[in-house]
Specification:
Its cofactor is Mn(2+); Mg(2+). By secondary structure, the protein is of the alpha/beta class. It has twelve helices and twelve strands.
Length: 357
């Protein structure tokens, strides 16, 4: 039975990147003699700019609500059918965070240096990025909440994920970066209880304190940061640049849903946004999407070694200068993907797999 992968597409450069994803996933599967079925959501979701183009505030609210309801239903339906992975291009954040709140999502990225590794777990299920808006003349009121239940779930997941990243169980520091001074001491209590229950030391700090510590001392060899999106959304790109000289255009992240109705469903997305200003020009950088396709192929479609094979192919085309304009090249999205697939041949796969093919 073929593995099934979900695909959700937003406006802007979404259709172009969806085509890249499908083509690369198919190419990897062909190299491994593995068929992968891709099930695409029937709706093309709005970016902020495409929603804004359709009308004023009331219309944007309607589109946000409709997109959120549709995408949540798509995620639930795929989870019910046993799908374990969805690739999604960028959609309007307001719709997206409603879904993340309902499905209790965390965003995960590992930022590695030659001597240290940071596991960042972003709390997308609660806080100021979630919640509902109400409107009065000249006023928007946004209501959000934090809860002990969600905080416990996020901490528990971060600790499980740390054990997966570092099976020997050794972690040097576990930090939480939240604006906890605004929460009347409640978050302090919840974190202290969780720390005692799990038998680990968890430091809860204001975001500026975490920033100062990272600037002065850098990363411990193994660091876990659990963070509210108020800090992590801004700092993610900075941390990528500071600690591993990476750009968001080349990175993807995974969103893990903690709600029991969709347990086991992981959503992969590029770190960059919808880039509406370059939509349809065949110039969007495909690297993040390519890497997401490789990771999904390896983790969810049985293509062991696909991540390494694609990284070797990316290095090969980069050495030849086959890059999009944002990376200093002069090639189109399509040309970069074609060049990559040309070198993604069986000889690029791990020797053990080639020998057994």
């Amino acid at each position: 039975m073929e593995p099934v992968i979900g695909l959700a597409v937003g406006r802007g450069t979404g259709p172009e990147l969806a085509a890249v994803f499908e083509r690369v996933l198919e190419g990897i599967g062909r190299s491994y003699s593995v068929g992968v079925e891709v099930v695409r959501s029937p709706r093309t979701y709005h970016s902020y700019h495409s929603a804004k183009a359709e009308g004023g505030t009331r219309r944007i609210r309607e589109l946000n609500r409709d997109d959120a309801e549709h995408y949540e239903a798509f995620c639930r339906a795929r989870a019910d059918r046993g799908t374990t992975a969805i690739f999604r291009t960028a959609i309007n954040a307001q719709s997206l965070y409603l879904v993340r709140q309902h499905l209790q999502a965390v965003k995960v990225d590992v930022i590695a240096t030659p001597t240290a590794s940071l596991l960042m777990v972003r709390d997308e299920a609660q806080g100021f990025y979630t919640g509902e808006n109400s409107h009065a003349p000249g006023v928007v009121t946004r209501t959000a909440e934090f809860s002990r239940e969600i905080t416990d779930k996020v901490i528990s997941y971060a600790l499980r994920r740390a054990r997966r990243e570092w099976p020997d169980g050794e972690v040097d520091r576990i930090l939480m970066a939240y604006k906890f001074h605004l929460l009347d001491g409640a978050l302090d209590e919840w974190v202290a209880d969780a720390s005692a229950r799990h038998g680990v030391e968890i430091g809860l700090f204001q975001p500026d304190t975490v920033n100062r510590d990272l600037v002065e001392h850098g990363l411990a060899p193994r660091t876990v940061i659990i963070a509210g999106n108020e800090w992590a959304d801004i700092m993610h790109v900075v941390l990528l640049d500071r600690f591993c000289s990476e750009r968001q255009e080349n990175r993807f992240t995974e969103n893990v849903h903690l709600h029991p109705d969709v347990a086991g469903l992981v959503e992969y997305q590029t770190v960059h946004g919808s880039a509406d200003d370059i939509a349809g020009q065949d110039v969007v950088n495909p690297v993040a999407t390519v890497r997401a396709a490789a990771t999904i192929a390896e983790r969810h479609a049985g293509c062991a070694g696909a991540i390494g094979a694609v990284e070797r192919a990316l290095r090969s085309v980069a050495r030849r200068g086959v890059l999009t304009k944002d990376q200093g090249g002069r090639y189109s999205t399509t040309e970069v993907v074609c060049a990559l697939l040309d070198v993604l041949e069986p000889h690029e796969l791990p020797a053990s797999l080639v020998a057994g093919s």
